[in-house]
C-alpha cells in the first residue's frame, strides 16, 4: 500500500534525477511499486511504467513534492476553462463501448 508520503517522495526523486522527469501522482505510485519490487529482490527484468496523466493536472501535489510548479505544455494550458463532458454508460458490451467511443470522437467528414 502506498500513501501520500511515498507518492510525494517518488515525485520528488524523479524530478531531481538527471535528467529530471515530472511524474503525476498516479504514475508515481506505479514507479514506487516497481522500485519496491526491485528492492525486494525481484528478478531483474525490464519494467515499463506508463504515465497515466500529466503532472500539470495535479499541480498542488507536484508542488508539494518538489517545491515548484510543474511545467505545463501549451496544449494543456489551452484546456483551462474549457467545458467538460461526461456521459454515464450502463454496463455495455465491449462492442457497444467501442461504437460509443467512435461516435463520440468522430469528426464530420471522417
Report on the structure:
The chain has 110 residues and is mostly helical. The protein has one domain. The chain is 47% helix and 0% strand. The protein is built from 5 helices and no strands. The protein has helices at residues 4-16, 25-39, 59-66, 74-77, 94-105. Helix 1 (4-16) crosses helix 2 and helix 1 (4-16) crosses helix 3. The protein is extended and about 50 Å long. The model has no long low-confidence stretch (mean pLDDT 88).
In short:
This protein is an all-alpha fold. Helix content is 47%, strand content 0%. The model has no long low-confidence stretch (mean pLDDT 88).
Helical content (DSSP H or I, runs of 4+): 40-55%
Q: Output mean pLDDT.
A: 88
- Along the chain, the helix and strand elements come as HHHHH
Secondary-structure class: mainly alpha
Radius of gyration: 18 Å
N- to C-terminal distance: 45 Å
Number of strands: 0
Which strand-content bin applies to the residues?
under 5%
Q: Shape from CA axes?
A: extended
Amino acid at each position: 500500500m502506498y500513501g501520500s508520503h511515498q507518492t510525494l517522495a517518488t515525485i520528488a526523486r524523479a524530478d531531481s534525477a538527471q535528467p529530471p522527469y515530472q511524474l503525476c501522482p498516479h504514475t508515481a505510485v506505479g514507479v514506487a511499486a516497481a522500485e519496491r519490487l526491485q528492492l525486494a529482490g525481484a528478478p531483474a527484468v525490464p519494467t515499463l511504467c506508463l504515465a497515466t496523466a500529466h503532472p500539470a493536472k495535479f499541480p498542488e501535489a507536484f508542488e508539494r513534492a518538489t517545491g515548484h510548479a510543474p511545467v505545463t505544455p501549451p496544449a494543456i494550458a489551452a484546456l483551462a476553462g474549457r467545458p467538460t463532458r461526461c456521459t454515464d454508460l450502463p454496463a455495455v458490451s465491449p462492442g457497444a463501448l467501442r461504437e460509443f467511443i467512435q461516435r463520440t470522437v468522430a469528426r464530420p467528414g471522417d
